[in-house]
Protein backbone atom coordinates (compact mmCIF):
# COMPACT_ATOMS: atom_id res chain seq x y z
CA UNK A 1 0.00 0.00 0.00
CA UNK A 2 1.55 3.30 -1.09
CA UNK A 3 0.82 6.76 0.26
CA UNK A 4 -0.10 7.80 -3.28
CA UNK A 5 -2.84 5.16 -3.52
CA UNK A 6 -4.22 6.11 -0.10
CA UNK A 7 -4.09 9.83 -0.90
CA UNK A 8 -5.95 9.23 -4.16
CA UNK A 9 -8.76 7.50 -2.24
CA UNK A 10 -8.87 10.33 0.29
CA UNK A 11 -9.01 12.97 -2.43
CA UNK A 12 -11.89 11.13 -4.14
CA UNK A 13 -14.12 11.34 -1.07
CA UNK A 14 -12.94 14.30 1.02
CA UNK A 15 -12.51 18.03 0.44
CA UNK A 16 -8.79 18.79 0.02
CA UNK A 17 -7.12 20.48 3.00
CA UNK A 18 -10.23 19.98 5.11
CA UNK A 19 -10.04 18.73 8.69
CA UNK A 20 -11.14 15.25 7.59
CA UNK A 21 -8.67 15.03 4.71
CA UNK A 22 -5.73 16.36 6.70
CA UNK A 23 -6.42 14.01 9.60
CA UNK A 24 -6.86 10.98 7.35
CA UNK A 25 -3.57 11.62 5.57
CA UNK A 26 -1.81 12.01 8.93
CA UNK A 27 -3.05 8.69 10.32
CA UNK A 28 -2.20 6.76 7.14
CA UNK A 29 1.29 8.24 7.02
CA UNK A 30 1.85 6.82 10.51
CA UNK A 31 3.75 3.55 10.88
CA UNK A 32 0.94 0.94 11.27
CA UNK A 33 2.96 -0.96 13.86
CA UNK A 34 2.22 1.88 16.28
CA UNK A 35 -1.43 0.82 16.29
CA UNK A 36 -0.77 -2.92 16.50
CA UNK A 37 1.70 -2.45 19.37
CA UNK A 38 -0.94 -0.55 21.34
CA UNK A 39 -3.50 -3.30 20.70
CA UNK A 40 -1.10 -6.02 21.81
CA UNK A 41 -0.36 -4.15 24.99
CA UNK A 42 -4.05 -3.99 25.97
CA UNK A 43 -4.62 -7.63 25.03
CA UNK A 44 -6.75 -7.09 21.92
CA UNK A 45 -5.44 -10.17 20.13
CA UNK A 46 -6.90 -13.54 19.13
CA UNK A 47 -10.50 -12.41 19.63
CA UNK A 48 -13.27 -14.04 17.64
CA UNK A 49 -15.20 -10.84 16.92
CA UNK A 50 -14.24 -7.24 17.75
CA UNK A 51 -16.25 -4.04 17.33
CA UNK A 52 -14.36 -0.90 16.35
CA UNK A 53 -16.93 1.56 17.66
CA UNK A 54 -16.61 4.92 15.92
CA UNK A 55 -13.94 3.67 13.54
CA UNK A 56 -13.23 6.95 11.74
CA UNK A 57 -11.08 6.26 8.69
CA UNK A 58 -10.40 2.66 9.69
CA UNK A 59 -6.78 2.77 10.81
CA UNK A 60 -7.59 0.93 14.05
CA UNK A 61 -9.87 -1.51 12.21
CA UNK A 62 -6.96 -2.47 9.99
CA UNK A 63 -4.71 -3.12 12.97
CA UNK A 64 -7.48 -5.07 14.74
CA UNK A 65 -8.01 -7.20 11.61
CA UNK A 66 -4.35 -8.28 11.63
CA UNK A 67 -4.60 -9.51 15.24
CA UNK A 68 -8.16 -10.87 15.46
CA UNK A 69 -10.48 -13.09 13.45
CA UNK A 70 -13.37 -10.73 12.57
CA UNK A 71 -13.78 -6.95 12.92
CA UNK A 72 -16.99 -4.92 12.72
CA UNK A 73 -16.04 -1.38 11.74
CA UNK A 74 -18.81 1.09 12.62
CA UNK A 75 -18.64 4.78 11.68
CA UNK A 76 -21.30 7.52 11.73
CA UNK A 77 -20.08 9.79 8.89
CA UNK A 78 -20.71 8.56 5.34
CA UNK A 79 -17.54 10.06 3.83
CA UNK A 80 -15.39 8.27 6.40
CA UNK A 81 -17.22 5.02 5.74
CA UNK A 82 -16.54 5.37 2.01
CA UNK A 83 -12.84 6.06 2.55
CA UNK A 84 -12.56 3.03 4.85
CA UNK A 85 -14.35 0.73 2.41
CA UNK A 86 -12.07 1.71 -0.47
CA UNK A 87 -8.91 1.32 1.61
CA UNK A 88 -10.03 -2.09 2.91
CA UNK A 89 -10.83 -3.18 -0.66
CA UNK A 90 -7.42 -1.99 -1.85
CA UNK A 91 -5.82 -4.13 0.85
CA UNK A 92 -8.09 -7.15 0.23
CA UNK A 93 -9.32 -7.07 3.82
CA UNK A 94 -12.08 -9.66 3.85
CA UNK A 95 -12.38 -9.97 7.63
CA UNK A 96 -13.63 -6.39 8.17
CA UNK A 97 -17.34 -5.64 7.93
CA UNK A 98 -18.03 -1.91 7.51
CA UNK A 99 -21.30 -0.28 8.52
CA UNK A 100 -22.57 3.25 8.85
CA UNK A 101 -24.32 3.94 12.15
CA UNK A 102 -24.27 5.46 15.61
CA UNK A 103 -22.55 3.88 18.59
CA UNK A 104 -25.41 5.22 20.74
CA UNK A 105 -27.80 2.80 19.02
CA UNK A 106 -25.91 -0.29 17.94
CA UNK A 107 -27.65 -2.40 15.30
CA UNK A 108 -26.11 -5.60 16.60
CA UNK A 109 -27.50 -8.50 18.61
CA UNK A 110 -27.07 -8.82 22.36
CA UNK A 111 -23.90 -10.57 23.56
CA UNK A 112 -22.27 -10.79 20.13
CA UNK A 113 -18.80 -9.26 20.58
CA UNK A 114 -15.78 -10.58 22.45
CA UNK A 115 -14.24 -7.10 22.61
CA UNK A 116 -15.11 -3.48 21.87
CA UNK A 117 -12.54 -0.86 20.90
CA UNK A 118 -13.60 2.79 21.10
CA UNK A 119 -10.90 5.35 20.43
CA UNK A 120 -11.51 9.08 20.90
CA UNK A 121 -15.18 9.24 19.96
CA UNK A 122 -17.40 8.56 22.99
CA UNK A 123 -17.31 12.25 23.98
CA UNK A 124 -19.24 13.06 20.80
CA UNK A 125 -22.18 10.93 21.93
CA UNK A 126 -24.64 10.56 24.77
CA UNK A 127 -21.87 8.71 26.57
CA UNK A 128 -24.04 6.99 29.17
CA UNK A 129 -26.31 5.60 26.47
CA UNK A 130 -23.25 4.49 24.50
CA UNK A 131 -21.81 2.64 27.50
CA UNK A 132 -25.15 0.92 28.01
CA UNK A 133 -25.09 -0.24 24.40
CA UNK A 134 -21.55 -1.51 24.81
CA UNK A 135 -22.65 -3.58 27.79
CA UNK A 136 -25.61 -4.99 25.85
CA UNK A 137 -23.65 -6.21 22.81
CA UNK A 138 -20.61 -7.46 24.73
CA UNK A 139 -20.42 -11.14 25.64
CA UNK A 140 -20.05 -12.21 29.24
CA UNK A 141 -16.34 -12.06 30.01
CA UNK A 142 -15.78 -9.65 27.13
CA UNK A 143 -13.63 -6.54 27.36
CA UNK A 144 -14.15 -2.92 26.36
CA UNK A 145 -11.40 -0.39 25.71
CA UNK A 146 -12.19 3.34 25.66
CA UNK A 147 -9.85 6.25 25.03
CA UNK A 148 -11.40 9.52 26.11
CA UNK A 149 -10.55 13.22 26.43
CA UNK A 150 -10.35 14.96 29.78
CA UNK A 151 -10.55 18.66 30.51
CA UNK A 152 -6.80 19.10 30.02
CA UNK A 153 -6.93 18.51 26.27
CA UNK A 154 -9.58 21.22 25.89
CA UNK A 155 -7.35 23.70 27.71
CA UNK A 156 -4.34 22.62 25.65
CA UNK A 157 -6.21 23.10 22.36
CA UNK A 158 -7.57 26.45 23.53
CA UNK A 159 -4.02 27.68 24.13
CA UNK A 160 -2.20 26.08 21.21
CA UNK A 161 -4.82 25.45 18.46
CA UNK A 162 -3.46 21.98 17.59
CA UNK A 163 -3.65 20.85 13.92
CA UNK A 164 -5.86 23.61 12.48
CA UNK A 165 -7.29 23.31 8.97
CA UNK A 166 -9.20 25.60 6.66
CA UNK A 167 -12.59 24.36 7.88
CA UNK A 168 -11.79 23.58 11.51
CA UNK A 169 -10.42 25.77 14.29
CA UNK A 170 -9.33 23.64 17.24
CA UNK A 171 -9.20 26.66 19.54
CA UNK A 172 -12.82 27.59 18.84
CA UNK A 173 -13.91 23.98 19.26
CA UNK A 174 -12.12 23.77 22.62
CA UNK A 175 -13.78 27.02 23.73
CA UNK A 176 -17.21 25.56 22.93
CA UNK A 177 -16.39 22.38 24.85
CA UNK A 178 -15.36 24.35 27.93
CA UNK A 179 -18.40 26.64 27.79
CA UNK A 180 -20.69 23.62 27.53
CA UNK A 181 -18.93 21.92 30.43
CA UNK A 182 -18.92 24.85 32.85
CA UNK A 183 -22.38 26.17 31.94
CA UNK A 184 -24.00 22.71 32.22
CA UNK A 185 -26.01 23.51 29.09
CA UNK A 186 -26.10 22.56 25.42
CA UNK A 187 -25.53 26.10 24.19
CA UNK A 188 -23.12 24.54 21.67
CA UNK A 189 -24.84 21.25 20.78
CA UNK A 190 -21.96 20.09 18.56
CA UNK A 191 -19.42 20.46 21.35
CA UNK A 192 -17.81 17.47 23.02
CA UNK A 193 -18.85 16.28 26.46
CA UNK A 194 -16.05 16.37 29.06
CA UNK A 195 -16.23 13.30 31.29
CA UNK A 196 -13.87 13.02 34.24
CA UNK A 197 -12.30 9.56 34.80
CA UNK A 198 -14.01 9.15 38.18
CA UNK A 199 -17.41 9.75 36.60
CA UNK A 200 -16.65 7.30 33.80
CA UNK A 201 -15.67 4.65 36.34
CA UNK A 202 -18.85 5.12 38.38
CA UNK A 203 -21.06 4.71 35.32
CA UNK A 204 -19.24 1.61 34.14
CA UNK A 205 -19.62 0.06 37.58
CA UNK A 206 -23.30 0.99 37.72
CA UNK A 207 -23.90 -0.84 34.43
CA UNK A 208 -22.21 -3.96 35.79
CA UNK A 209 -18.69 -3.73 34.35
CA UNK A 210 -15.95 -5.15 36.56
CA UNK A 211 -12.17 -4.95 36.97
CA UNK A 212 -12.17 -1.37 35.70
CA UNK A 213 -8.73 0.10 35.00
CA UNK A 214 -8.17 3.77 34.15
CA UNK A 215 -4.81 5.37 33.34
CA UNK A 216 -3.18 7.87 31.02
CA UNK A 217 -3.06 7.45 27.25
CA UNK A 218 -0.94 4.44 26.33
CA UNK A 219 -0.28 3.45 29.94
CA UNK A 220 -2.52 0.40 30.49
CA UNK A 221 -0.76 -2.94 29.94
CA UNK A 222 -2.84 -6.12 30.11
CA UNK A 223 -0.48 -8.40 28.18
CA UNK A 224 2.67 -8.40 30.30
CA UNK A 225 4.61 -10.06 27.47
CA UNK A 226 3.87 -7.26 24.99
CA UNK A 227 6.31 -4.46 24.24
CA UNK A 228 5.64 -1.86 26.93
CA UNK A 229 7.36 0.94 24.98
CA UNK A 230 4.34 1.85 22.87
CA UNK A 231 3.86 5.28 21.36
CA UNK A 232 2.06 7.65 23.71
CA UNK A 233 -0.06 10.00 21.61
CA UNK A 234 -0.85 12.42 24.45
CA UNK A 235 0.60 13.22 27.84
CA UNK A 236 -1.58 12.13 30.76
CA UNK A 237 -1.73 15.59 32.34
CA UNK A 238 -1.78 19.19 31.16
CA UNK A 239 -1.53 21.93 33.80
CA UNK A 240 -2.11 19.19 36.36
CA UNK A 241 -5.45 18.20 34.79
CA UNK A 242 -6.38 14.95 33.04
CA UNK A 243 -5.52 15.31 29.38
CA UNK A 244 -6.33 12.01 27.63
CA UNK A 245 -7.06 8.78 29.46
CA UNK A 246 -7.82 5.17 28.60
CA UNK A 247 -10.14 2.64 30.18
CA UNK A 248 -10.31 -1.16 30.26
CA UNK A 249 -13.38 -2.87 31.75
CA UNK A 250 -14.84 -6.37 31.67
CA UNK A 251 -18.41 -7.67 31.55
Describe, in plain words, how this protein is organized in 3D.
By secondary structure, the chain is of the alpha/beta class. The protein has a domain at 32-149 and 195-221 and 244-250: Rossmann fold (3-Layer(aba) Sandwich). Helices cover 39% and strands 21% of the residues. It has 9 helices and 9 strands. The strands form 2 sheets. It has a 7-stranded mixed β-sheet with strand order 3-2-1-4-5-9-6, with helices on both faces. It has a two-stranded antiparallel ribbon with strand order 7-8. α1 runs antiparallel to α2 (19-28), α3 (33-41) crosses α4 (59-67) and α7 packs across α8 (170-183). The radius of gyration is 17 Å and the shape is globular. It starts with a helix and ends with a strand. 41% of the residues are buried.
Q: Number of DSSP helices? A: 9
Shape: globular
What top-tier CATH class of the domain at 32-149 and 195-221 and 244-250 fits best?
Alpha Beta
CATH H-tier superfamily of the domain at 32-149 and 195-221 and 244-250: Vaccinia Virus protein VP39
Mean pLDDT score: 93
H/E series: HHHEHEHEEHEHHHEEEE
Strand content: 15-25%
